[in-house]
Predict the structure.
Amino acid sequence: MPSTPRPGLDPALLDEFRRIVGDAYVIAGRQELLVYECGAYTLERNLPHVVVLPASTEEVAAVARVCAREGLPIIPRGAGTSLSGTVLAVEGGVMIALTRMTRLVSIDVRNRRALVEAGCVNAWVTQAVKGHGLLYAPDPSSQTACTIGGNVGTNSGGPHTLKYGVTTHHVLGYELVLPSGEVTWLGTTWEGGEDVDGLDLRGAAIGTEGMFGIVTRVLVRLIRAPQAYKTLLGVFETVEDASQAVSDIIRAGIVPAALEMMDQLITQAVEQAYKFGFPMDAGAVLIVELDGLAPGLERQAQSVTEICRRRRAREVRLAQTEQQRAELWKSRKRAFGAIGRLSPNFITQDGVVPRSKLTEMMRFIEECSRRHGLRIPNVFHAGDGNLHPLVLYDERDPEQVRKALLISDEILTQCIALGGSVTGEHGIGTEKMDFMAKQFSKDDLEAMKQLRAVFDPQTRCNPHKMFPGSKKCGDFHPKKQAAA
Amino acid sequence: MIAFRPATIQGMGERMRSAHSAGQPVGLLDLSRLDRVIQHVPEDMTVRVEAGVSFGALQRTLAAHGQWIPVDPFDADRLTVEEMLANDVSGPRRCGFGPARDHVIGMQVVVGDGRLIKSGGQVVKNVAGYDLMKLFIGARRSLGIIVEASFKLLPLPEIESIFSAETSSVDEASALLEAVHASALTPIILDAHGAGRDKGPTLVVGIAGSREDTAWQTDELRRLGPFLASDLRYESEFWSTVSRDRLARVSVRPSETMDAIRQTAGVRYVARAGNGMIYFEGGQPRAKTTDPVLAALSARVKQTYDPRGILPALPA
């Protein structure tokens, strides 16, 4: 029995939505809506008025047309793994969740493409094409849950973007339902070639965090799975040595598929949780994955090993089997899940610095931690200069909450000062909108808003995101982050 | 008509603002004085330049540090970064490294109303704000003039080798192409070129990497067909003599490349078989089906950044 509806929406509209998608796929009861009050960023929460679960592009378009007629906000949602508040219904509105549109529609092995519905889970794509020796390259740590449509909205990355690039490099085209309810296709079509006439609206709308419309189907590029891997684990006494090794590897002209760092705090937590065999007393570990044709990898692996040793690595281990490699990655990708062992709450940041500033930035974070007395473990994409400091705090202590927010602010401000960015892959969402004015000029932001107005003149689609000064949720509750 | 040659980015902005106020076409532009390499930090593997810099000169500067922007347009010395990006020009190595847009991490543009706007930044991974850069790459100056660009770089490969194989028919070339495609090779160039119908396309394969890797690939390739050491002369011959007025391009699924070659009716062509692009002489204007929603969006983008129409029309 559904609970009482959230007030504020005409019951006749709920009936209209039910006629479009079916009775079972309109969620309007207060209790049932709680699932949708936030994504993986839980500091702010609010209920949408209704969640609609369409099964096709036509249904999405019909729901969008009703919203257009009624002037209602639309919040597109995939799996809700956003770490920046991108799927938050700031003022309520109609949430369109794509979780019933999960089909892998078609695979074109010869042309290395797959057509998927937006709710298709990222990892399913690689799973489905693996037998053909292919894979879908962007691999966010949440890849077993997050959706391809959500990846398009966020321009998602992952550890292997160092060599292979992010979502925009692997999405050939997609179907977009505009907030008006009109349907269009941006970029390459299933039948078409990769060069498309006219403006690259495909590229311009990727990473717009659901503010340009609802992505319903996506044509992704597949790449050939590497013939071989060499996955190394470098064990260092200090973060500084590990950071120097990262710079040296890049400077040596080696392009690893992934180059990841975990500091002592996070390595201990990950080891306790997953028992991979990480050393508990190391200052930092580096995961260096080399991939490509087998004949070239041996010498590269030797170079990496030598570089690590020159930076005083105590030990450099090589994954001996595919299973060891898989377990290493599983531990790394579930690192956020191990934080519960360290602290009741944490805020994760996503700043980026030029790679030569990595050591300096790591020192700054350490200094922040000391000065404010909060622990900050780090697990991140070192090769890209993309940090993920995890500021630990206890929400029951308001002083800790205040400090955690202050530390986040200081870290992101320092990233900008060093010539970097406040987000490498998690997005701006509601979380970091006030930083946009630090990173961009008024004219830059105005030009972005103007592009949004092309797609959504009434700014109804995913409102109150991205731009500084946007409205925030009334209730602001720092809560534990169940991050992916 | 003499081209306007701004000495500074601000100068370009002023010119655009006055053209915008007057509602007059901005006219011919020559960005060759905006040729500074603003910042190249080899250890970051990024470079930031004024967009009037010659692409060839820039590549030489980077090569001195063992780095490059993996885009290889024909006649790079006579092409500025702005021209390369505005016209989305690429070369045969696009097969291995992707189009120019994949390597741009930041940009400054003077849009049609004179505003200077920035998108992206100096780091290799960045999702702050919308990716406005994509609007201007390949837009042929219809929305604004790119005045500054930042790229992520790659190390130059230790070894690059180019091979070609002659064939006697399109069918034979097609079979060979499929064999290369299905093999474990990782070509950075996969071209076909030819002229006339008396013989089949010449297939070109480029490989790059470490010496161990390229040695292995060379052996593999020779096992697949009659591949001999070769070069990219066909590329410069085609582009230096092709009539720009009669140059046509079709973009198909890579698997349809050879079918498209059959339809070129015996004229000269260069095909990027890995990407499904065929360039040839003597093309007929194609009938286009335009999605009205897409056309309306594009027109609104034009209206937004060039409200008085002082820049060239949108690319067709």
Notes: Chain A touches chain B through 88 residues (CB under 8 Å). Residues 398-417 of chain A form the longest helix (20 residues).
